[in-house]
Amino acid sequence: MMRVEWPTAGRGPLRELRVLDLSQQLPGPYAGLLLAEQGAAVVKVDPPGGDAAAQIDPEMHVRLNDRKRTIRVDLKTEAGRTHVLTLAREAHMVIQSWRPGVAERLGVAPAMLSAVNPRLVVAVITGWGKEGPAAGRGAHDINAQAAVGALDAISSLERTGVPWVDLATGVLAAFAMTAAWHAGEAGVLEIGMLDAAAAWTAIKPKAVTVREPAYGVFRAGDGRRFALGVLEDAEWRRLCDGLDWPELADVGVGERNDRFDELRVRVEAAFAALDEAGIAALAERSGVLLTFFDPVDAATAEQLRLRGYGPDAARRRQISEIQPWA
Fold it and tell me: Hey, what domains does the chain have and what are their CATH numbers?
């Protein structure tokens, strides 16, 4: 079988690393992308029919894998297994995301990989973990959210449009792999989506822990939507100054919580009386944390471009690009 060349390493601090990404969908490939963005050379191995994510969300799939070299290999054949084991021999890290038992059946279980390269760090991403009554189940982002109570909706929206459990799992996997490699350790890291969801919700169990009348998504009178982030008393005073509500400026967070329904109606009515230009003027004179979206305002769009995001980005930003001390 033709030998596959590893892609050229990037400019980041992990440029010495070679990563073999055997995962599919989102959590594992996102971990691989994070490593690639830090300079690692990543080869992604897809089955003959390709990664299912390419059909489910083609744009996301391209973004997840545009820094990797992708090949298609049939691991159900001896030639396919040999090819992957050859790549594993040259790699520093391997990412997997099958249900428990699948890697063993395909002949690329962690123990089989370590037999050809005992220096490997192998991340095994699962839905629920390797042990326990739910270990054999598959999972998607929404399943893990439900398991940890993260779908306790406070509005008509049942979940955020961003699959945060998938992404959190990828972040934790990339972080754990990098830490193990930095420490000179080899072996298997097992990261469950349930772990990521539970870890994040343990820090902040509810989506919003207080009911703030000026925190959320609002509409101007002309229908323009914007997000408003008024949580602290100082922010509330700024809003009251901007709306000329001196009688409410000293209403503290506890009282705002108790008077949520009354104050929310008043805030919404004030915004409904203004068009987009009026809302923008309010934000300018008060300094409250306000962001237009669908689409974002010109300043935010330019900020995204300068930071390296979007089709017209000035340049793709390398988060790990350190500025040396003078």
Answer: 18-203 (3.40.50.10540), 215-294 (3.30.1540.10)
Strands 18-21 and 41-46: parallel
Cα 259 to Cα 82, 211, 217, 254, 278: the distances in Å are: 67, 9, 19, 9, 26
pLDDT of 207 higher than 60? no
Q: What is the pTM assigned to this prediction?
A: 0.80
The number of residues making up the chain comes to: 326
pLDDT value at residue 21: 98
CB 95 within 8 A of CB 28: yes
What's the rounded Cα separation, in Å, for the pair 119 and 141?
Answer: 32
126 vs 113: CA distance, rounded Å: 18
Angle between helices 27-37 and 164-182 (to 10 degrees): 50
Structure tokens of 257? 């919580």
Instruction: State the residue for tokens 């471009």.
Output: 305
Residue 161, CA distances (Å) to 27, 182, 301 in order = 16, 34, 20
Contacts of 199 (CB under 8 A, 6+ apart): 168, 172
Tokens encoding 152: 């306790």
Query: Can you give the pLDDT at residue 155?
Result: 39
pLDDT band at 157 (very low <50, low <70, confident <90, very high): very low
* 93 and 120 Cβ atoms separated by less than 8 Å: yes
Q: Residues 16-60: pLDDT tens digits?
A: 999 999 999 999 999 999 999 999 999 999 999 999 888 888 888
DSSP string spanning 193-260? Answer: HHHHHHHHHHHS-SS-SS--TTEEEEE-TTS-EEEEE--SHHHHHHHHHHHT-GGGTT--HHHHHHTH
Mean pLDDT of 273-282: 96
Q: How many CB atoms lie within 10 A of CB 226?
A: 20
3-state SS string over 97-161?
Answer: CCCCCHHHHHCCCHHHHHHHCCCCEEEEEECCCCCCCCCCCCCCHHHHHHHCCCCCCCCCCCCCC
Question: Is the pLDDT at 154 greater than 50, yes or no?
Answer: no
